[in-house]
Design goal:
10 helices, alpha/beta, nine-stranded parallel sheet, 26% helix, TIM Barrel, eight-stranded mixed sheet
């Protein structure tokens, strides 16, 4: 068993940053601290050592659902994301006609048997729809948005096809049968996420009380805060039970709003995501737009979101990294990803003092990270 020592790095733990060493063996962090018995050493002096990041809202090529291409899509996404320091992700499908969505889920399950290594791990699927509000559809295709029907055999087949694979579903609480849908999601152990919604503050609180405690890209795809009709956004700022998913690319949210969300959130409740669409470079540029000028996903890398959060909100490096690693890990109930601790999987990245990625360590593989395209 090969032993790799990451020596004298500034290790970013959930609570602080400490200059220390990590011993990697058997694909896990075997020891934190000094060690003399190793086969290979990585000099991390002057570098940050961060946990692999986790993206709960990554569209990539899955923005264009195609059952016959699921295997190819998965492989390409895995290879690209690992170079960006992402160790795990949810493949996020937009609102899609239910029959086609069923085909895609079946195909993706088969593709999971052939996942590439080293590569970012598919942690499951995030269904962003199709049970949304057409009044807050954003870039979602309106003709694919439907009402949930608890008596529909086709919709029952959707959950059968996604069992064990679908980990999160974004839905609108003003759907006529939203409460029945929430019951199904809880029964299937799927994280219920509120989004693409014009729900009132009161409805948002009712659903939070019933167990829907995750907000899909806060402020985007929902009403802004009005002093007489505050809506879902204000519920997300005031109710400490909510996880608040945010896109910190400088376009989806004004930096001052990012600061507001950060200051309003209890520890561990901010989740950074990318909402990345497509498969092309360059990265970290202005997001795609619809014909009318509205935003349609992002071109953001998750490490850039971490850097932006620090810059916009004043968050410390441990807090910001945690928002893209440990916090999303906890949303999914994971225990070995998104953290640096003895026994955890060795999914790590090395970054310079500006959080520009240099190396990725995945198991016992050491990979050159994708260079920053923008300073």
């Amino acid at each position: 068993m090969k032993k790799i020592l990451i020596k004298n790095g500034n290790v970013v733990f959930a609570e602080d940053v400490r200059k220390t060493s990590l011993l990697i063996a058997g694909g896990r962090i075997q020891k934190i601290g000094e060690e003399k018995n190793y086969d290979q050493v990585i000099d991390a002096d002057g570098l940050y050592v961060i946990p692999g990041l986790i993206d709960l809202h990554y569209h990539g090529l899955f923005m264009f659902p195609s059952p016959e291409k699921m295997s190819d899509f998965l492989e390409r996404v895995q290879r690209k994301l690992i170079l960006r320091g992402v160790s795990g992700f949810l493949a996020t499908f937009p609102a899609t006609p239910v029959p086609r969505l069923i085909e895609c889920l079946i195909s993706l399950k088969e593709a999971c048997q052939r996942m590439v290594q080293p590569g970012a791990r598919l942690l499951g699927v995030h269904l962003e729809g199709p049970f949304l509000s057409k009044d807050a559809k954003g870039a979602q295709p309106e003709d694919a948005i439907v009402e949930y029907d608890p008596d529909s055999a086709e919709m029952a087949r959707l959950f059968d096809a996604g069992r064990g694979l679908v980990r999160m579903m974004s839905f609108s609480p003003e759907q006529r049968s939203a409460r029945e849908l929430l019951d199904v999601l809880k029964k299937e152990n799927i994280v219920p996420a509120l989004g693409h919604s014009v729900a009132s503050f009161e409805v948002a609180e009712e659903f939070c009380e019933s167990g829907a405690r995750y907000l899909t890209h806060l402020f985007n795809g929902m009403r802004g805060i009005h002093h007489r009709e505050p809506g879902l956004a204000l519920a997300g700022l005031l109710d400490d039970r909510f996880y608040r998913e945010i896109i910190v690319d400088g376009y989806h949210l004004h930096p001052a709003v990012v600061k507001l969300v950060w200051r309003s959130s209890p520890e561990g409740k901010v989740v950074l995501i990318t909402d990345f669409v497509g498969d092309e470079d360059p990265l970290d540029i202005e997001p795609p737009r619809m014909a009318g000028g509205g935003l349609a996903g992002s071109r953001l890398r998750l490490i850039r979101a971490v850097r932006n959060l620090i810059r916009f909100s004043g968050a410390g490096i441990s807090e910001a990294v945690r928002s893209a690693s440990l916090n999303p890990s906890r949303v999914l109930g994971l225990t070995e990803l998104g953290r640096i601790q003895e026994g955890a999987e060795s999914c790590l990245a090395l970054a310079d003092d500006r959080l520009r990625l240099k190396k990725v360590i995945f198991g016992e593989e050491i990979i050159d990270a994708q260079d920053d395209q923008l300073n």
